[in-house]
Amino acid sequence: MSMISHGLGSLPSAAPAAVPDHWNPGGPSLRVGGLPRHGKDQGAHRSICVIGAPFGHGAGVAGTELAPEVLRRAGLHGPLRRNGVRLADAGDISPRQFRDSMVQGRKIRNLAAVTHVNRRVYAASMEAHARGFRPLVLGGDHSVVVGSIAAAADHARLHGESLGVLWIDAHGDMNSEETTPTGNLHGMGLSCLTGRGPEELTRIGKFHPAIAGGQTVLFGVRDLDRGEDANIEAAGVELLDMPRILRVGMANAIAHAMDYLAARCDRLHVSLDIDALDPSVAPGVGTPASGGLRMDEAARLLAAARSRFEISSLDLVEVNPALDAGGVTARAACNLLHLLLDG
Length: 343
Ligand SMILES: [Mn+2]
Hints:
The chain is of the alpha/beta class. It has a single domain (2-341), classed as 3-Layer(aba) Sandwich (Arginase, Chain A), CATH 3.40.800. It has 12 helices and 8 strands. The protein has helices spanning 2-7, 67-73, 77-82, 111-130, 145-158, 189-193, 199-202, 228-235, 242-248, 250-262, 295-308, 328-341, and strands at 47-53, 86-92, 134-139, 163-168, 216-221, 238-241, 267-273, 311-317. Strands 2-1-3-8-7-4-5-6 form an 8-stranded parallel β-sheet, sandwiched between helices. The longest helix has 20 residues, at 111-130. Manganese (II) ion (MN) binds at residues 142, 169, 171, 173, 273, 318.
């Protein structure tokens, strides 16, 4: 706790009562009365529902479970509300905060806990979609987005539309049980969503696979594990790693990502792993990798996505307040979200 308080010392003070509409999406009985209901054409594109997923057992380093609270205190809500975004906050889903032991003969850590969290994230996200809100899931580590993206894909299918995914990350998150060097599920999320992984996670939503690899762009990668590149190719994920981005130039890389997705999908989910940024601007992460995106580059990417697509849902993951001296990473994350969501 002292670490968090220390880290928050230089953050702008939290707006009191910044959270207008609480409900407990993971609880045994859904209390959704506080959320106004409105349809897709009545401003849903300006309506955001924040869902906190304070969970870090998909990662090898503890601390991301602190992020939802820290991001709210860093001023996540204020600028959005000032700019007329209709904002609800569902509060945090309640994760299982204990680790499970490794199942004999398997290479996956904390599968039961990760499954539990993702079922709740899925349910909360579906609820938000049904009520005309765009879910903004605050991780937590990157394993929590299996639920949010499965929900976004299922909701798109309900409307006869297909979902594209822009996965912004230093890592591929395309490990399988065979290739994972650590057993940590935050390195397997995209693999699970594109159909390869433990059944508990590949079948969180109504369809298998939840999303098509061919409708997914992986942007900003520069740290792949052995065998992960083969998984990416097998799944048909479009890889815009840093070497390729540097080769073609940032502007061309962004244009290609947008054209690629626009040709293949109707709406877009953005999954932003803050470790896609260079550690010099976002040091508070558990698995930093040098040579990442500058703030202005990330801002250009998100602005392009926003101008080109209906962004139906998004995640912000891997902010680790325990490693974020001065709160710089939390502030960078809030700034990027405001850019993606304002007005
Ligand atoms: Mn990731």
